[in-house]
Amino acid sequence: MKALVLSQPNEPLCFVDQSSPAPSRGQVLVKLKAAALNRRDYWITQGLYPGIQCPVILGSDGAGVVTAVGEGVDPAWLGRAVIINPGYDWGDDPSAQGGRFRILGMPDNGTFAEFIAAPVGQVYPKPPSLTWEQAGALPLAAMTAFRALMRQGRLQSGQTVLITGIGGGVATYALQLAVAAGAKVLVTSSSPGKLEKAAAMGAFGGLLYTQPDWSEGVVSEFGPVDVAIDGAGGEGYAKLIDVVRPGGRIVNYGATRGAPSGLELRKVFWKQLHLVGSTMGCPADFAGMLEAVSRYGIVPVVDSILPLAQGNAALERMRACGQFGKLVLHMGD
To answer: Would you tell me how many other CB atoms lie within 10 Å of the CB of residue 110?
Structure first.
């Protein structure tokens, strides 16, 4: 099979021929049709992710067809169109992952390949309304957005939510889910074009976080928000303290801009704020995300589709932060 392999950080992925994996007991073999990039893949290639193990096939998102089953797996899975839950071994506590939790695409070989062997418990029926590329773009980012909004953020219809950094995969799914759930959605970006695209998708308002007074603009134009969803951290995180109402929630799922600075704890305790972390999601979150996609008719936003051989070009586009939505690799026939 063809695969994209990371031999070591800070080097391009190698497009190579490898033997296709065979499904072990309890596994299915999936012939992948499409896979999507996540920011995690980029950080691994840059050596900026903990516990890097090479060589490895990256990729956490994938959709395809089951072509073989291992011992103990119902043969009825053969021929089924599936997507893969990339959160392995979450554990028994839905509130937090256990010590064995890991994400597909390191240390386990991931989806930047023509075939993957995965535990049968990690595969779910592909939403029939979605193309292969749309389905392949769904798993990690949509599950992360669902958990951040619904479980950790406890978003309710009629509430106002601020989503930072619109255009990234998780933020874009969060926008779609929040609009579908009946929330009033505000977004931030460094790009006026991305704000326009978000407005076309139902965002009520948008602000450029490159403006030093953007947080004041949120409150003056729209009032305090009930929930803020953030994946950046950095200097902008402290401003979220000012835009969230007393008793409100700030949910953070990443730190692409590093650790927060200038965080005033006095404001946190005086405003009775809830600062909440969120990572990936438990199996119930993945199932809940799929149910929401079906119920609301959500269609993943795909920025661009490239052949598997051009995975390095897709990573370069991610590095430049030019995308709006997901970057997808297709495997051909």
So the answer is: 29
How far, in Å, CA of 124 to CA of 130, rounded? 14
Q: How many domains does the chain have?
A: 2
State the Cα–Cα distance between residues 136 and 228, nearest whole angstrom. Answer: 27
288 within some domain: no
Residue range of the domain that includes 63 = 2-138+300-330
* Same-domain check for residues 27 and 120: yes
Pairing relation of β-strands 184-189 and 205-208? parallel
Per-residue CA distances from 70 to 23, 118, 120, 231 (Å): 5, 10, 9, 38
Residues 24 and 64 in one domain: yes
Q: What is the pLDDT of residues 259-270, one digit of tens each?
A: 888 889 999 999
Q: At how many degrees (to 10) do helices 214-222 and 234-243 cross? A: 20
Beta strands in the chain (DSSP E): 2-6, 14-17, 27-36, 56-57, 61-69, 81-84, 87-88, 102-103, 115-119, 123-125, 160-163, 184-189, 205-208, 225-230, 244-252, 274-277, 302-307, 326-330
Location of structure tokens 């070591």? 8
> What is the 8-class DSSP label of residue 151?
I
Same structural domain, 218 and 239: yes
Global pTM? Answer: 0.95
152, 183: one domain: yes
Residue 107 included in any domain: yes
User: Residue 227 belongs to a domain with what CATH number?
Assistant: 3.40.50.720
Sign of the Cα pseudo-torsion (273, 277, 283, 285, in order):
positive
Closest CA to 218 of 185, 262, 196, 170: 185
% of the chain surpassing 70 pLDDT? 100
Residues facing residue 162 across a β-bridge: 186, 228
Q: Region 62-67: what's the mean pLDDT?
A: 98
Ranges assigned E (strand) in 44-120: 56-57, 61-69, 81-84, 87-88, 102-103, 115-119
Q: pLDDT, tens digit, for every residue of 158-190?
A: 999 999 999 999 999 999 999 999 999 999 999
Number of residues written out for the chain: 333
φ and ψ at 171, to 5 degrees? -60, -40
